[in-house]
Specification:
Elements lengths: L12 E10 L8 E2 L13 E10 L5 E12 L1 E2 L7 E2 L11 E8 L10 E3 L8 E2 L1 E2 L14 E16 L12 E2 L10 E2 L5 E5 L4 E6 L8 E10 L1
Length: 224
């Protein structure tokens, strides 16, 4: 059977995941890159083929890129609050975690970055501190449908501007073998980053963004 040269069959649905950080976003907190349905990777995972950052800030900014694993968890109302992921986790002391869900346990703030504490770490349990190496946070409620977002930092890149020229910027590539050594390469020699089911990419600014300015990041690829 003849095949039209214009025919194209794809096993993926093209997607764009977007996120941005501005002057109202606290430096060091993580912003997930979301698609139009406010989701990360699809039920079968995703292949990220490009991640590009642009800025209209009047100063160069360092933007971090991270892989985020979403896990359902429970938390005790105790001093300190103890989180449990029944299926187990690979969290290590000092690793960054932020919380979401219907309601986070009282004592925590949704979206704020916390740090895993060495004490209390087991294969299923962990405790969180507001600072690296700090004391675990006490809780006075268990929260509702709590989600733990476990952060693995992939790398960082300076999003440059032309000095003294507001809004003049070149796009910065966050998905490159220079930034992320060991990236997988497809049959065409193009690097890509695989996301497992329901995982996310996330960004964070290391310094406060200038008032009324924005650094925007877009990831391009497709769900499997």
């Amino acid at each position: 059977m003849a095949v039209s040269p214009n025919s194209f069959v794809s096993t993926q649905t093209p997607k764009i995941w977007r996120g941005s950080v501005g002057s109202g976003w606290t430096a060091g907190n993580w912003q997930r890159l979301l698609d139009a349905a406010n989701a990360g990777a699809g039920s079968n995972g995703a292949k990220i083929c490009g991640v590009v950052a642009t800025s209209n800030d009047s100063s160069a900014r360092v933007i971090q890129l991270a892989h985020v694993r979403q896990e359902s968890c429970t938390c005790t109302s105790a001093s300190p609050g103890v989180f449990t992921i029944s299926g187990g986790h690979n969290i290590v002391a000092g690793e960054q975690v932020f919380l979401g869900g219907t309601a986070v346990p009282t004592g925590f703030t949704a979206g704020t970055t916390y740090f895993a504490v060495a004490g209390g770490l087991t294969s299923t349990n962990f405790e969180l501190s507001a600072t690296a190496g700090g004391t675990a946070v006490n809780t006075s409620s268990t929260g509702t449908a709590v989600l733990a977002y476990i952060v693995t930092i992939l790398g960082s890149v300076s999003v440059a501007i032309t000095a003294g020229t507001d809004g003049s910027t070149a796009a910065a590539n966050l998905l490159s073998p220079t930034l992320l050594p060991g990236l997988a390469v497809d049959n065409d020699g193009q690097p890509y980053f695989p996301l497992e089911s329901m995982d996310f990419l996330a960004i964070s600014n290391t310094a406060t963004i200038t008032s009324n300015k924005l650094v925007s990041v877009a990831a391009y690829g497709g769900n499997f």
